[in-house]
Amino acid sequence: MPQTADDLDAVAVRTWCSLALDALGREREAIDAINVYPVADGDTGTNLYLTVESAAAAVEAVFAAHETGTSVPSTADAVRAMAHGALIGARGNSGTILAQLLRGMAGVLAEEAGPEAGTDRLRLALTRAAVSAREAVAHPVEGTVLTVATAAAEAAGRAPGGTGAVARAAYEGARTALEATPGQLAVLGRAGVVDAGGRGLVAVLGALVEAVSGRAPERMYESSAAPVPVAPAAGDCPAADDPEGGPAFEVIYLLEAGDGAVERLRTRLDALGDSLVVVGGDGLWNVHVHVDDAGAAVEAGVEAGRPYRIRITHFAADRVHARPEPAQRAVVVVVPGDGLGGLCAEAGATTVLARPGEPPASGELVDAIRRAHAREVVLLPNDGDLRHTAAAAAEQARTEGIRVALIPTRAAVQGIAALAVHEPDRSFDEDVVAMTAAAGATRYAELAVAERQSWTMAGICQAGDILGLIDGDVAVIGEDVPRTARNVLDRMLAAGGELVTLVLGEDVPDALADALEEHVREGYLAVDTVVYRGGHQCAPLLIGVE
Description:
Distance between the termini: 39 Å
Number of strands: 17
Number of helices: 18
Largest sheet: 6 strands, mixed
Shape: globular
Radius of gyration: 25 Å
């Protein structure tokens, strides 16, 4: 994590994106809950998360392209990737505005300058961001994320000191402005909430502080609890009224077009509806508008250039149109290897492969949910690090009319246990309860190879040691796989158990499974063992005890 207060370099940008994604993951539900403006559709937190997820993925791709060499990307490469990723992945009104804020910052930070210019560049970047975001919105409204962004830029402009101090001043200025939003926008005041988009921006700026200083600021909200918004009164925001009083559709698309064509498009879309935000530049734009005539909004894009990734959401139905008659229920499972993928597919599940070092993005999970083609879907992420990604995917699928239950499985063996008790003929709630109970009753472990000397819960390990992790923590350090596996099993079975599940990696011989089965059979009466081949997976051995 960068500790310098002199510059926001490529590594700091990467860290910022990662921390911002974590922060929005923690606050996603709370932000969704206070979303009452411009439409009370409860998705601002999810949209911001998906936007930053796309930005972070783009930055990671730039770093991955440099892995074969000894250098890291330039700051310009990193910030341009961040801005481009946010632009193409922007969701909803607030996500589109955030994309423009990041684009505005990137335009300054990508410019050539000496290290001594770092602090001034951040001040200018925040100012450029606030200005460009306002310019992107057809009719700016105070008490929104625009107000919070402007306050952050103004506070940064007054702040003395290095980059860390400037970032912290921007964060504090944004916090103060956010608290004032209920007094600026009547719908927020009546609902007793702050602006949802502004709260998301505060989380992103808090991540920036931590990225450049190494110290996280005090969180504005200690828990995810949030006031339950009340319905806004007529006249506060047209799109938040009943379907007859405001635009019925949200239309979003990417557009390849020239500047002149986009200016004409703005004028035409502004006459068709409200909440118009057009962000981007250099031939690529993200268009967002609320309208009654969705076809006319898309047609306007066709006349301006080449629209694609077109998304139309009906506010009243809160779902995407045109879906064929689906099946009743399906299960979507994230698997760490192709072997388990085949096993779960045979059981009727739709699978998403988590490749080593490449966890699936929320978009992949949403695509899998759609591919399952069911009214009701149970989602099994099988990885604790995917909890925010899976939650965002589930929320996105719900906006499309799919009932999604997310069971927070933390390991593949928990997913196997849940899938084993899945019964599509019983009620959805009963099925989810049974699957959750089965997953929760399964302790999980895995073996891993230490990459370097490190301190662990079990002591100091050396590079090449075999680590036995139980429920996510290192519990055993060994010299070889068989002995370490036996020690892990003994620790797990000391607390009792009826069934041991072993999932072998691609290069692990069958003899290991035979030896472990014999170990369990001889040492623990009435405990059964099942063995699966996991195929190509990170861990040589996964263990579950039910």
